[in-house]
Inverse folding.
């Protein structure tokens, strides 16, 4: 099972390598990882997608908590949550395919952020499943390059008071 | 407040932490700290012969005293030489602070002379580590390091000190207490969990306490004994737990696991309740995990949540300090008010069964005329030293025979590398223990292989006039590996026989120490007696049965009931 962990860590030089080292050293896998600043400059926020049975996920969370630099770990996928990823896709766009690509962008609400005589660069945001679908559709047209942010996630607030 | 240099801060912080002795080896990148140590003069420095020895000595000091052990090394090779010692301490949760010199901050990353990324190298084998790039952070870092090393589940913490930082100046701020928002070990066990544990214990018919190194680290031996006695529950210990419960107690089952006693392993296989205290269900203890303790409910007390549910499913997890948890559990037993006799009645048939196992296959060995049996040497050593010695061991058969045949009644009297199994640990650890307790008898039980891994520290022991006694069980083999080859590799003794071994008596003499040798069983007692009575550093070498094995033995990957017996 896939789990999305939200981790707050001290913004120190070694913190990230402690976390990635923990995963490689103990044979846990990281499917995606994204790191960014928080409103508090002394803390960084990591979103980490990993997979494993309940036993392994429990170990991963405990092991993360054991690191001196880790402030807080939340398994956001335990409950209701919103997840998003962004990709920039440079796709071959020749005269005969340009219109089709634009139509697809429209349907999936992607944006064309760069245009060259032979390519479009498309920005797409959504849950990982949406990115996957778009990538599959673009593949036959010829994807030249792709770069992705990795998933970020946040817990949904309760709808009732 | 006047400003201080980094090197002054190091020495001042050591004083504030109550450090009376440090172990180390100098070099260019740490020369400034050494200069300050020398100028200050109030902290004893033990100059070793190899930085690995310094790390093990600090570890031995820590294990014997419960205090934080401190060692110092220079950058590059000095730092890398401490890594085995750091990993050894890490695996056994030993509190240590390691200071390493580093090239000046401006050169870091340039492959400068004797530069190595020791913080990167030791990240997976320290509890935490630091590269201090600004002298303003130094005093707080040292405070944190000692606090982290000794609190929660203890462990080694390394501080890397660039040369320029040692000489830069800043305010020295050393708070009495610190709080780290990201580091808050759970000490106080949850009351509800204790109640649940009591209810499970109350119903158990065949309970066993499985005690590990956590009992010793948290000084929980009195509480453990009280729980065992009040509830008439037998106790088995891991290698690291030995001494946590008296080896001579009638409820003691001895060590469990790969080289555990028959009765301890049978008890684990048949118990309906395991109370695990400060132990981590390591593979040397469980054997084949699917076959481990099939009928047992498990109560698991440990300060490290990651130890719980790591290898086995636990029914009642209790996160917290072992001493506090056991105290609460004992209180629960008291409050419930069931008399001791009632507990004993409830466990009577279980205790009888255990006694029957004990009688069926007690620990033992076959005597052979004219040949010294290593177990006999340990038995005699025990008879002559009981209760008053700190015993360290190397790794291999020597270690297992000591664990089996020496009865440890008190905590912190058996120092051995359990988790990492580091050959070469025992002798420098003995030096550390002897520095802490100059008047105690400290004995390193060694194999002829292991002792050669840090034999250079004889000079250190001579320097410090330390009366460490070394017992070498010389089988002229890397015995434990040979035993595996004998049993599982059709006796192909690949690379387990040394062509050349020094004359250990002469080695002793060449360092200015004393050496004795026994070649026949009749000589064993006399050599031990002479050796133990001789002042100063002594080697006692025993030419033991060359192909003697350690039994019982659970072959790796087998169920713990599938023991090979004597
Ligand atoms: C540094 C290190 N290298 C290798 C090993 C693997 N090993 C475990 S026991 C052993 C043999 C030890 O031989 P010796 O010290 O003579 O002790 P004996 O088993 O004969 O008592 C070896 C090589 C180890 N534990 N540590």
């Amino acid at each position: 099972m896939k789990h999305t962990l939200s981790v707050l860590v001290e913004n120190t030089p070694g913190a990230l390598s402690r976390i990635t080292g923990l995963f490689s050293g103990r044979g846990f896998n990281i499917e995606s990882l994204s790191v960014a600043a928080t409103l508090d400059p002394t803390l960084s926020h990591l979103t980490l997608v990993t997979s494993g049975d309940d036993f392994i996920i429990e170990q991963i969370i405990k092991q993360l908590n054991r690191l001196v630099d880790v402030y807080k770990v939340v398994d956001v996928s335990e409950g209701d949550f919103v997840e998003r990823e962004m990709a920039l896709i440079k796709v071959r766009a020749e005269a005969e395919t340009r219109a089709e690509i634009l139509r697809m962008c429209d349907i999936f609400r992607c944006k064309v952020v760069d245009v060259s005589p032979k390519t479009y660069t498309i920005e797409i945001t959504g849950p990982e499943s949406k990115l996957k679908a778009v990538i599959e559709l673009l593949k036959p047209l010829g994807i030249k390059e792709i770069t992705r942010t990795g998933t970020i996630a946040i817990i949904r607030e309760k709808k009732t008071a | 407040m006047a400003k201080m240099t980094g090197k002054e801060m190091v020495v001042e912080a050591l004083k504030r932490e109550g450090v009376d002795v440090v172990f180390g080896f100098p070099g260019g990148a740490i020369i400034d700290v050494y200069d300050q140590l020398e100028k200050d003069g109030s902290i004893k420095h033990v100059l070793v012969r190899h930085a690995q020895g310094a790390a093990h000595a600090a570890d031995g000091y820590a294990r014997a005293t419960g205090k934080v052990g401190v060692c110092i090394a220079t950058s590059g090779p000095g730092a890398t030489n401490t890594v085995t010692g750091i990993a050894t301490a890490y695996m056994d949760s030993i509190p240590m602070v390691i200071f390493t010199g580093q090239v000046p901050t401006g050169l870091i990353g340039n492959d400068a002379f004797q530069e190595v990324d020791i913080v990167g190298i030791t990240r997976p084998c320290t509890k935490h580590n630091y590269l201090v790039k600004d002298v303003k952070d130094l005093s707080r870092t040292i405070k944190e390091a000692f606090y982290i090393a000794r609190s929660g589940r203890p462990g080694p913490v390394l501080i890397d000190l660039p040369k320029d930082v040692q000489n830069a100046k800043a305010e020295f701020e050393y708070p009495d207490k610190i709080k780290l928002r990201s580091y808050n070990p759970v000490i106080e066990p949850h009351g509800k969990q204790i109640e649940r544990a009591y209810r499970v214990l109350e119903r158990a018919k065949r309970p066993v306490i499985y005690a590990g190194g956590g009992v010793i680290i948290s000084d929980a031996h009195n509480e453990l004994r009280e729980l065992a006695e009040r509830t008439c529950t037998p106790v088995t210990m891991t290698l690291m737990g030995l001494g946590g419960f008296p080896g001579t107690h009638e409820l003691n089952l001895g060590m469990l696991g790969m080289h555990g006693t028959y009765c301890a392993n049978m008890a684990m296989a048949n118990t309906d309740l395991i109370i695990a205290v400060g132990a981590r269900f390591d593979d040397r203890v469980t054997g084949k995990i699917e076959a481990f303790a099939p009928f047992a409910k498990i109560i698991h007390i440990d300060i490290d949540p990651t130890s719980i549910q790591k290898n086995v499913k636990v029914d009642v997890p209790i996160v917290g300090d072992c001493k506090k948890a056991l105290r609460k559990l004992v209180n629960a037993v008291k409050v419930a008010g069931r008399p001791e006799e009632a507990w004993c009645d409830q466990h009577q048939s279980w205790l009888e069964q255990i006694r029957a196992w004990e009688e069926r296959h007690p620990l033992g060995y076959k005597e052979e005329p004219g040949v010294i049996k290593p177990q006999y040497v340990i038995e005699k050593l025990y008879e002559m030293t009981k209760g008053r010695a700190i015993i360290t061991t190397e790794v291999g058969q020597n270690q297992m025979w000591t664990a089996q045949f020496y009865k440890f009644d008190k905590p912190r009297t058996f120092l051995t590398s359990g988790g990492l199994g580091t050959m070469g640990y025992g002798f420098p650890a003995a030096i550390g223990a002897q520095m802490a307790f100059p008047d105690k008898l400290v004995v390193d039980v060694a194999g002829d292989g292991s002792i050669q891994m840090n034999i250079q520290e004889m000079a250190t022991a001579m320097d410090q006039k330390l009366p460490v006694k070394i017992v070498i069980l010389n089988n002229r083999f890397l015995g434990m590996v040979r035993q595996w080859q004998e049993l599982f590799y059709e006796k192909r003794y690949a690379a387990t026989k040394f062509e050349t071994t020094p004359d250990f008596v002469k080695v002793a003499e060449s360092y200015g120490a004393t050496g004795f040798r026994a070649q026949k069983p009749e000589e064993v007692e006399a050599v031990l007696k002479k050796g133990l009575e001789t002042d100063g550093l002594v080697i006692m070498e025993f030419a033991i049965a060359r192909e003697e094995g350690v039994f019982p033995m659970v072959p790796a990957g087998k169920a713990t009931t599938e023991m090979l017996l004597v």
User: Anything to note?
Assistant: Chain A touches chain B through 19 residues (CB under 8 Å). The two ends of chain A are 31 Å apart (CA to CA). DSSP finds four helices and nine strands in chain A. The longest helix of chain A spans residues 95-108.
